[in-house]
Structures are given as structure tokens and as C-alpha cells.
Amino acid sequence: MIIYYFKKLHNFILDTLFPIHCLYCQKYGAWVCSECAKKISLLSVQVCPYCEKTISPNGRICPLCKNKFLEKNESWPLDALVVSTKYENVSRLVHCFKYNFIQNLGESLAKIICQALISHNLTLPDYIIPIPLHSRRLRWRGFNQSEVLAQYISQNLTPGFSIAILSKLLIRKKYTPAQMKIKNYQERQKNVRDIFGLNCNVETQNFASLHNKTILLIDDVATTGATLFECAKILKSAGAKKVFAVVIARQEIRKKLL
Ligand SMILES: [Zn+2]
Ligand SMILES: [Zn+2]
């Protein structure tokens, strides 16, 4: 009850001090007005999610990168990564969503993701899995931004049909520094290695349901893709047939070392 009133008060203060206005043109009424929303263009082509250079249908790994993994006796677990738009098109929205805690922005961002998914014609997923936050970060933000996106996508990707969300299956076991602060690619890989796992408290029936299923992973922004890579690896080893991922945008890292 106290939390309910606290949230009401928090929203009241937010609405009074920062009345809802379009973050692009300042017009009052919505965080992104319909005219500005139309101007956010989707990416016309997708690239290989590993080298980020070769143009690749639906964001599948390119043959050259695929071979690099095979040479190491590994396989790339992510069947496709769809990047919805350029980071600079949405950087302000993403920042306000995550760091100014404007949860309502999730809908505008999730709409962009839905449009991107529809334009790519990927197999419809059996389940949607948002990238989990560590409980400490979840307490700090008050919501998991990927889960907010997942909820909208689950209801709106196919009209009249909702896709089940498995939000408790993957867990973030360790609290790690925010990826934003780590600039080096190899450091990022180290940072996410072994930090995700399957939630042992989830009923076995839920684990079994992954078998032979197509999963759609949702994250807000990808950088190297290391987080998505780790999560896809876990889901594949738990029996998933296909793991696709979608993000709003991808942030460039200049020091990426391949
Ligand atoms: Zn506007
Ligand atoms: Zn490649």
C-alpha cells in the first residue's frame, strides 16, 4: 500500500516538474508525438552481429565469422540479431527510459521494435525472454527495461494473439559494473561470462517447455552482443531450437577487437 502511494506521489512530482512533452519537438501530450515517431527510420539493412561489417539477411552471422567459431570448435548460438534503428535516432529516448526512469517510454520504443520485427519476417517465437537485471539494479531502477519492452511486444507483435513471456527462467547471478562503463570488447566479454544462468527455482515444466522451441530474446541496446551471446548459449544448451534477438539499437564501440 505504501509503495502504491509512493509511486503515485513520484508520478505526481514527475508530471508537475516534467510535464509530458515530446522529447524531439517539445510539443506537450506524449513523450514521442506521432509526427516525430514517423521520422524514426528503421535500419534498411542488417549486418552480421559479430563483425558488424558484412550485410546479412535478418542479422545472421556471416560465413566468415561462422568459420572463425567453427575453427575454435564453438558455434555462434544466436540465429539472428535484428537491430531496429540507429542509436543516434533514439539515444535520448533510451537514456530517459533507463536513467530518468520514464517507464512509459517503453511503449514508444517497443513500437519501433515491433515494426522492425514485422519487416524482417522472422519465425514467430514460441516464447519471449527479456534479458534479466540483477536484483540490485532492479531495485535501483524499479523496473526491468527489457521486460517492459517484452510486455508490449508480446501483446502487439501479432494482433489478437499474445506470445508467452518467460521472465523468470534466465537469471543474472552476479552484480557487475554497467556495460556502459567498460569500453574494451574483451573486457565486456569477460564481464558477462558466467553471470547468467537458469533459475533453479523455476518449475521443471518451464525448463522442459524450452525444448525444440523458438525463443526471442529482448534487450534495449546491444554493444558487442556479448550479453545476447551468453544468454543464447544457455538457452540453446537447455534445448531451444532457435534463438533470435532484437534490440532497439546498437551502440558502437571503437575499440572492438576481433
Ligand atoms: Zn514531436
Ligand atoms: Zn561477420
Look at the helices and sheets and give the structural class: alpha/beta
Share of residues in strands: 5-15%
Helix content range of the residues, please?
A: 40-55%
Q: Give the distinct bound molecules.
A: zinc ion
* Largest β-sheet summary: 5 strands, parallel
Task: Give an overview in words.
With 258 residues, this protein is an alpha/beta fold. The protein folds into two domains: 1-39, no CATH class; 41-250, Rossmann fold, CATH 3.40.50. Helices cover 40% and strands 13% of the residues. The protein has helices at 2-17, 34-39, 63-71, 87-99, 105-120, 135-141, 145-156, 185-192, 204-208, 226-237; strands at 80-83, 127-130, 164-165, 170-172, 196-198, 214-222, 242-250. The strands form two sheets. Strands 1-7-6-2-3 form a five-stranded parallel beta sheet, with helices on both faces. Strands 4-5 form a two-stranded antiparallel sheet. Helix 10 links the parallel strand 6 and strand 7 (242-250). Helix 5 (105-120) packs across helix 7. The longest helix is centred in the first third of the chain and has 16 residues, at 2-17. It is globular. The structure holds zinc ion (ZN) (2 copies). Residues 22, 24-25, 27, 33, 35-36 line the site of one zinc ion (ZN).
